[in-house]
Amino acid sequence: MLALEWLKNARDVMSKIEDSQMENIKKAAAIMADSIEAGRWVHTFGCGHATIPVEEMYPRIGGFVGFHPMVELPLTFFTRITGEMGVHQFLFLERAEGYGDAIMKSYNFDKRDTMWIFSHTGINNVNIDIALKAKEIGMKVIVFGSAAGSVDKKSRHSCGKNLFELADLVVDSCAPLVDASVDLKNHIDKIGPVSTMAFITLVWMTVTTAAEILAERGVKLFIHPSHNVPGDTTAHDRLDGCLAAYKERVAGI
After folding, report:
1. Least confident of 28-32, 81-85, 217-221
2. What would the DSSP string read from start to end of the chain?
3. pLDDT digits (tens, 9 = 90+) for 112-121
4. How many angstroms separate the CA atoms of 98 and 168, rounded?
5. Which of 98-107, 135-144, 158-167, 243-252 bottoms out in mean pLDDT, i.e. has the lowest?
6. Does residue 156 fall inside a structural domain?
7. Which residues span the domain enclosing 82?
8. What is the CATH number of the domain that holds 119?
9. Is residue 243 part of a domain?
10. In this model, does residue 79 exceed pLDDT 80?
């Protein structure tokens, strides 16, 4: 069954992450913990399917305040596919140099912040714009993506560098560059991509590690609770506490 082939491919990627990326995950989590402990932000950004890990972090049951999603609707896959906000427009925009500069103008940043960018290939201009501006401000830039697979991919940006070359720290998603992983009879293109699964795996490995670091430092975390547990009479109060803490931080941006 092709379902089992995809499952094996997904497990192989997760095993590669565990075998090769733990040290960089710990380093990334420590940088993020420093920003959050300072009362600042880990800003998260991606385009297309790479917005999915951004949306997974916060607000999310089991996530905690400190991660700030920067989600541009025209750069997500929440589009009409064709017509207004179609895929053709999305592909144009993610490659439009300068668009990332305009996005960055909409926020206030601090050098104590961290910029966490998700990009499978690391070659598109919007992500590189974001990274360059973040570094100009003095932020640490952390990039998750198929770094080894993209080593020979030429940047589309005039700076000449891809996203992985600009990063202060890279965590490799270990996903193959082609992304889709399963051959299909009578077809040229494969099916069953694994990069999103890799990103989500890395998100929770990193976020749980950051939480562990902060808890060991004695920092109180505002954790988004489940609202669906019978008998939990304080969940809404805890949720209100999370949103109050989020509003207090977001007021600065």
Report:
1. 81-85
2. -HHHHHHHHHHHHHHHHHHHSHHHHHHHHHHHHHHHHTT--EEEEE-GGGGHHHHHHSSSTT-BTTEEEE--GGGSS-S-BSSTTBHHHHHHHHT-TTHHHHHHTTS---TT-EEEEE-SSS--HHHHHHHHHHHHHT-EEEEEE-TTTTTTPPPSSTT---HHHH-SEEEE----TT-EEE--TT-SS-EEE-HHHHHHHHHHHHHHHHHHHHHHTTPPP-BPPPS--TT-TTHHHHHHHHHHHHHHHHTT-
3. 999 999 999 9
4. 22
5. 243-252
6. yes
7. 2-220
8. 3.40.50.10490
9. no
10. no
Closest to 249 (Cα-Cα) out of 118, 51, 58: 58
Identify the band that residue 46 occupies on the pLDDT scale cut at 50, 70 and 90: very high
**pLDDT(78) > 80:** no
Task: Decide if 68 is inside a domain.
Answer: yes
Kindly report, residue by residue over 4-39, the tens digit of the pLDDT: 999 999 999 999 999 999 999 999 999 999 999 999
> How many structural domains does the chain have?
1
Q: How many residues does the chain have?
A: 253
**CB 202, CB 25: distance < 8 Å:** yes
Residue 250, in any domain of the structure: no
Residue 241 has pLDDT above 90, yes or no: yes
Q: Please, what is the average pLDDT of the chain?
A: 94
